[in-house]
Design a protein that fits this description.
The structure holds two protein chains of two kinds. Chain A is built from 18 helices and 33 strands. By secondary structure, chain A is an alpha+beta fold. The longest helix of chain A is centred in the last third of the chain and has 28 residues. In chain B, strands 2-1-5-3-4 form a five-stranded mixed β-sheet, with helices on both faces. The chains are: A alpha+beta, B alpha+beta. Chains A and B meet through helix 1 and helix 16 of A and helix 1, helix 2, helix 3, helix 4 and helix 5 of B.
C-alpha cells in the first residue's frame, strides 16, 4: 500500500492562525496556536463539548447486521451469474508440465475455463533467466492457484475443477524455517528474489543480499552498538520463537466479477475498493473509469484483503470469457493456504542498560518466513519504542515452500514486542527495578507514560508479587507490555456531502467499513456539523464511483477520511446557509445549526426546523466535496500511538494450561471519535493477541509439504469460553493535526498482548516462556516437566 | 434428483436438489436467504447456524434430507415486520458485533440457547456459544447481549 506521510509545512497555501487543543486530557492538555489552511473549518473543542463526535453512537448499519440483511460479497446474486471454483496446486514445489482442461470444458453447464498465467503474491526472481522458460508459473507452495472453471452451479464448478488434469514435475521442497536456512536446503527460488509490489500496493525491501533461501539482512543502525554494550552494567540476551498465524477472517476472500463491454463491476470483500480497482485496471489494461469496485459489507480482513488477488483476476478472466457475472469465493482451506499469514520469527535479542537504568544498546537479529514471499521483519518495536542511543537490527526473510504472507494487524509488531518486552522486563529485574519504573525511565512517549500510570492504579499493579510466589501447582502472575504504532495518513481520502431540499443529508466516499464502524463515525462527523443526529445522515460508502476512499490498513482509516468528511460537511453547511438565508431574512453569518434547527445567533425568536429551512433552498440539492488536506504543522507532539496492556494469568503447572484471568488495555488514538466502537476494536485486539499467544499455529508437514490444519478445528482461534474479563481505558490525546484530530486503534490494540502474557507467565512461574503458541505441551516443556515436543 | 419439500420461515417450497446437498446451500441458492453464512464449511465456526425443528444446527454440514418435516427458521424469520426479535434488539443495543459476519449465526445460536435455558449463567452462555467464532473478538458484548435478552424475556 502506498502510504504517504505528509504534513503541510512545505505546502504553500494561505493560512490563518487558530488556537487548537493539544495534549492529554487530565494531564498536559492546553491550547496551542497553530497556522492552518484558511479553508479549514474552525477547530473542534474537546469531546465533552461536542454533541455527536466522541459519543457512543450505536452502529449506523446495526439493524441490517442483526437482521442478516446486510449484503456481503458472497450474498450478491446477479442475473445469469456463474459460480467459479479454483484448481489449486496439490504439491509444494513443482514445474507444471501440462494442464489439460478439455474434459472440464466439455462438461454440460461449464461456461469458461481459465489457466493462471501469472501468480500474484509470490516473490519474483531478480533475474528471471535463472529459471528455464515455462508456459505455466512454477508452483512454490501447495494451494497455489493453477486454473479455474466457471459453471452454472457451485456443485458443477467443483466437479469440473476435479476434471482439470495438471501434470507436475515435482521439485525438492522445504517448509521448515530452520531447514530452509541450511546450506544444502532445497531452493525455493534458484536465485535472489524480491517481493513484487502491484498496482494495488505492497512490495518488500529490494536488492538486499540473498544466500540460498535467506534473503537479507535489511539493516538499521543508530550509534555504535559495541560501545553501547561496553557502557552497559547489565546485559540480557535471549532467543525468541513465534509461529505463523493466519488471518482467518470469517468471510473468506472473494469477488463477484461482472465484465461488461462498457464497465467492469467487481463486488469484492476488500479493505481497499481503490486498490482492487487499480490492480484490475492494470492487469486488464483498462482505464480506471471503466472499473467499478463495490464493498457494501465485508466480513473482516485484518490486513490480508488488499488488491484484487489471484482469485479476483481469475474471476474477471472467467467473466470476460463467459460473458456473464462470476461468483468466486474461496473455501476455508484456500483461505488458510493462499491469501496471507503473519510470518513467524526466530529472534536473537540482546539489550543492555547502564547502572542508572538507562538503555545503552539494543541489538536484534531476526529470521522469519513469509513463505514464498518476504515481509517477515519485526524490528519496529526494537527501533521505535524506547530511547536508546545505540541500536542495530538485522532482519532476514527465509523463503520456504509456503503461501506468501500478507500484512496482518501491526505487521511484525506482535513478534517484535514479544521479544523486546520480555527482555525489557528481564533487564529491569537484573537492575532491581520495577518493570513500569524501568519503562518510565526509558520511554519518552507521553501517552504511554500516562497509560502506565493509569494502568498501575487501575490494575492493582503494586499488589504484584515476586516471581513464582504461589507454592501450589496453579500459579498466578501479572505482566505488562506496551505497544508502538505510527501515524499513517492516506491522502487519497475524499468525501462528498449532499443536502437535499427535503432536509435529508448524505455523505459519499469510496472508503469501506471493514468492521471498525467508519460508517457510524462518518455519520457522527456530518451530524456534528449540521446539528443533526447520526441516524439523520445517510452514509453511502464502499464504491469507487464515490470520491476516493483510503484503503483500510495501518490504522489509517479514521485519521484519513474523517477530516475530509468534516470539511465537506462544513463547506456544504456554509453553502446551505447562504442558500436559505435570504428566504429566512437573516444574514447567513448570523445562522447556526443546532439540535435539528436553524437558528439566528442574534435573535433567539428566529428558529426553524432543519427540514423547514431546507425547503427554502434555492436549488434541489447542495453538494460539497472535500479532499484530505495534509496534517497541520506539528506543535511538537510525538506522532506515534502507544498502548499498554496489563494481564493476569494462572498457569496450571501440571497440565500446562494457561488461563487468562483478566486484561486491562490502556490506549490512545488521538481524539476518540466513538468510544463504543473503539472499545469493541480494542476488545478484539486483546482477544486476537491472546489467541496468537496461546492457540493459533499454522502447521506444515515436513514430509508432504502440506498444511495439516487448514480448518477451524485444528487451527484453534479464541472463543467465548476463553474470553477473560477485559477492562478498557482510552485516553483523549489531542494532537492538533486535522479538522477532526482522529487517529487509529486497530494495530496498537493487539501487539502487546502476547508479550504481556509472557511476562505474566514469568511472574507466575519464575520461568521465561520465550515461544508462542504457549500450548500446554510448550508450557510443560518450558517448565521442564516433559522433554522436547515438536509441533 | 428428487423433489424435496421444505418449510422455511413459514414458506413451503419444493426444491429440486440432491438429498445430500447442504441446507446452507439450499437456503442461499434456492430461497435467496443469505443471512446464514459460509465461513468454514465443516461445522466448526457456527456462522451458518439456523434452527431446524427448534434446534440450532450447522447448516453447512446439515444435508437437506435430514430436515424431513421439520420447520426451518433462519435469521430472516426472526423479526416481524415492525419489531426485531428481543435477541436481535439486545445485540443491537449492546453493539455486540463488528464486521457482522458471525452475527446471524451467533443470534440463532443464542435463540436456541435461551429456548433451552431461559435464565443461563454467564458460564452457560459462554459454553452455549463455544462453537461460534467471532474473529473480530466481540464475545464480551455478545455474552452481555444474551444476558440482557434473557433478563428482558423474564420480565416480559
Amino acid at each position: 500500500m502506498l502510504m504517504k506521510f505528509v504534513d503541510d509545512s512545505k505546502e504553500n497555501v494561505p493560512k490563518r492562525s487558530e488556537s487548537l487543543i493539544v495534549g492529554i486530557k487530565g494531564d498536559d492538555m492546553h491550547q496551542a496556536q497553530v497556522q492552518i489552511p484558511t479553508e479549514e473549518p474552525p477547530p473542534l473543542p474537546e469531546n465533552d463539548r461536542l454533541k455527536a463526535i466522541g459519543k457512543r453512537a450505536t452502529r449506523w448499519d446495526g439493524n441490517l447486521k442483526v437482521s442478516g440483511s446486510g449484503k456481503y460479497t458472497a450474498d450478491i446474486r446477479l442475473p445469469g451469474m456463474l459460480y467459479a471454483q479454483m484448481v489449486d496446486a496439490t504439491v509444494p514445489h513443482a514445474k507444471v508440465v501440462s494442464i489439460d482442461t478439455t474434459e472440464a470444458e466439455k462438461m454440460p453447464g461449464v461456461k469458461a475455463v481459465h489457466v493462471v498465467e501469472h501468480v500474484l503474491g509470490n516473490a519474483q526472481l531478480r533475474d528471471p533467466k535463472q529459471e528455464l522458460p515455462s508456459k505455466y508459473p512454477i508452483v512454490r507452495y501447495a494451494g497455489q492457484p493453477v486454473a479455474a472453471v466457471a459453471a452454472v452451479s457451485p456443485q458443477l464448478a467443483r466437479a469440473a475443477a476435479l476434471k482439470v488434469k495438471v501434470k507436475y514435475a515435482p521439485l525438492p521442497f522445504v517448509v521448515d524455517r530452520d531447514d530452509a536456512r541450511k546450506h544444502d536446503a532445497p531452493l525455493v527460488y534458484p536465485g535472489p528474489a524480491d517481493q513484487a509490489g502491484t498496482a494495488g500496493g505492497g512490495g518488500g525491501p529490494k536488492n538486499v543480499p540473498q544466500v540460498g533461501n535467506v534473503h537479507g539482512p535489511a539493516e538499521h543502525k543508530v550509534g555504535y552498538i559495541d560501545e553501547g554494550f561496553s557502557d552497559a552494567a547489565e546485559v540480557v540476551e535471549a532467543r525468541y520463537i513465534t509461529q505463523v498465524q493466519t488471518h482467518s477472517a470469517l468471510e473468506t476472500h472473494g469477488v463477484v466479477a461482472d465484465w461488461k463491454p462498457d464497465v467492469l463491476t467487481v463486488y469484492a470483500s476488500t479493505q481497499g475498493t481503490s486498490t482492487v480497482r487499480d490492480e484490475l485496471a492494470y492487469v486488464f489494461s483498462l482505464p480506471k473509469n471503466k472499473v467499478r469496485v463495490i464493498t457494501e459489507y465485508m466480513g473482516g480482513g485484518f490486513g490480508a484483503k488488499f488488491g484484487a488477488g489471484n482469485f479476483g483476476v481469475v474471476a474477471t478472466h472467467l467473466s470476460k470469457k463467459a460473458g456473464a457475472p462470476v461468483w468466486l469465493m474461496l473455501d476455508r482451506q484456500q483461505e488458510h493456504l493462499s491469501v496471507g499469514n503473519r510470518p513467524d520469527s526466530d529472534q536473537s535479542l540482546k539489550i543492555g542498560a547502564k547502572k542508572d537504568g538507562t538503555l545503552s544498546a539494543i541489538q536484534l537479529v531476526s529470521y522469519g518466513t513469509a513463505g514464498c514471499g518476504t515481509g517477515a521483519g519485526c524490528s519496529g518495536p526494537a527501533i521505535n519504542m524506547y530511547k536508546c542511543p545505540n541500536v542495530h537490527t538485522q532482519e532476514y526473510d527465509v523463503f520456504i515452500n509456503g503461501g506468501p504472507a500478507a500484512s496482518f494487524r501491526a505487521p511484525g509488531h506482535p513478534q517484535g514486542c514479544f521479544a523486546l518486552e520480555q527482555s525489557i522486563d528481564e533487564l529491569a529485574e537484573k537492575l532491581g527495578m520495577d518493570p513500569l519504573d524501568f519503562r518510565d525511565k526509558n520511554d519518552e512517549f507521553e501517552p504511554r507514560r500516562v497509560e502506565r500510570r493509569i494502568g498501575r492504579a487501575k490494575f492493582g499493579w503494586d499488589q504484584r508479587r515476586k516471581a513464582g510466589s504461589d507454592p501450589g501447582p496453579v500459579k498466578r502472575g501479572m505482566g505488562v507490555a506496551q505497544a508502538v504504532w505510527y501515524r499513517i495518513i492516506h491522502m487519497d481520502s475524499a468525501a462528498e456531502v449532499r443536502v437535499h431540499q427535503d432536509g435529508s443529508v448524505e455523505l459519499m466516499s469510496g472508503v469501506q467499513d471493514i468492521g471498525g464502524g467508519i460508517k457510524t463515525v462518518l455519520a457522527q462527523v456530518v451530524a456534528e456539523e449540521f446539528g443533526l443526529t447520526p441516524k439523520d445522515i445517510s452514509i453511502r460508502i464502499g464504491d469507487t464511483q464515490y470520491p476516493s476512499g483510503p484503503p483500510s490498513g495501518g490504522s489509517c482509516t479514521t485519521a484519513s477520511i474523517t477530516p475530509a468528511a468534516r470539511n465537506a460537511a462544513y463547506q456544504a453547511k456554509l453553502a446551505f446557509l447562504r442558500s436559505v438565508a435570504p428566504a429566512l431574512n437573516v444574514s447567513s453569518d448570523d445562522l447556526v445549526l443546532q439540535d435539528g434547527h436553524v437558528r439566528s445567533k442574534s435573535d433567539s425568536s428566529k428558529s426553524w426546523t432543519f427540514k423547514r429551512a431546507a425547503a427554502k433552498m434555492r436549488t434541489s440539492e447542495i453538494a460539497a466535496r472535500a479532499d484530505r488536506v495534509p496534517d497541520y504543522k506539528n506543535v511538537g507532539r510525538r506522532l506515534n500511538y502507544g498502548g499498554v496492556h496489563f494481564i493476569e494469568i494462572s498457569v496450571d503447572t501440571e497440565m500446562g494450561h494457561i488461563h487468562v484471568e483478566r486484561a486491562l488495555a490502556v490506549q490512545d488514538c488521538g481524539r476518540p471519535m466513538n468510544p463504543l466502537h473503539l472499545e469493541s476494536q480494542i476488545n478484539g485486539g486483546v482477544l486476537q493477541g491472546i489467541s496468537y499467544a496461546l492457540y493459533e499455529n499454522r502447521i506444515l508437514d515436513k514430509q508432504k509439504g502440506l498444511m495439516v490444519n487448514p480448518n477451524f478445528d485444528f487451527y484453534k482461534v479464541i472463543g467465548a469460553q476463553e474470553t477473560p474479563k477485559i477492562e478498557i481505558h482510552v485516553i483523549e490525546n489531542y494532537l492538533g493535526l486535522s479538522s477532526t484530530d482522529a487517529g487509529g486503534i486497530g494495530e496498537p490494540s493487539t501487539m502487546a498482548t502476547a508479550a504481556a502474557i509472557a511476562n505474566a507467565f514469568y511472574n507466575a512461574t519464575g520461568v521465561r516462556m520465550r515461544r508462542t503458541p504457549m500450548t500446554p505441551a510448550a508450557v510443560l516443556e518450558t517448565l521442564g516437566k516433559v522433554r522436547s515436543v515438536t509441533a | 434428483m428428487p423433489d424435496l419439500k421444505l418449510t422455511v420461515n413459514g414458506i413451503e417450497a419444493t426444491v429440486l436438489a440432491d438429498p445430500s446437498t447442504s441446507l446452507l446451500s439450499v437456503l442461499r441458492k434456492h430461497f435467496h436467504l443469505t443471512g446464514a453464512k459460509y465461513a468454514c464449511g465443516e461445522g466448526q465456526c457456527g456462522a451458518c447456524t439456523v434452527m431446524v425443528g427448534g434446534e440450532a444446527v450447522r447448516s453447512c454440514v446439515f444435508p437437506i434430507h435430514n430436515v424431513g418435516q421439520k420447520y426451518v427458521e433462519t435469521i430472516e424469520g426472526l423479526a416481524n415486520s415492525a419489531h426485531l426479535h428481543p435477541i436481535q434488539q439486545a445485540f443491537l443495543d449492546a453493539s455486540a458485533f463488528q464486521c457482522g459476519f458471525c452475527t446471524p449465526g451467533m443470534i440463532m445460536a443464542s435463540v436456541a440457547l435461551l429456548d433451552r435455558n431461559p435464565a443461563p449463567s454467564v458460564e452457560e452462555i459462554r459454553a452455549g456459544l463455544a462453537g461460534n467464532v467471532c474473529r473480530c473478538g466481540t464475545y464480551s458484548r455478545i455474552v452481555k447481549a444474551v444476558q440482557s435478552a434473557a433478563k428482558a424475556g423474564r420480565n416480559a
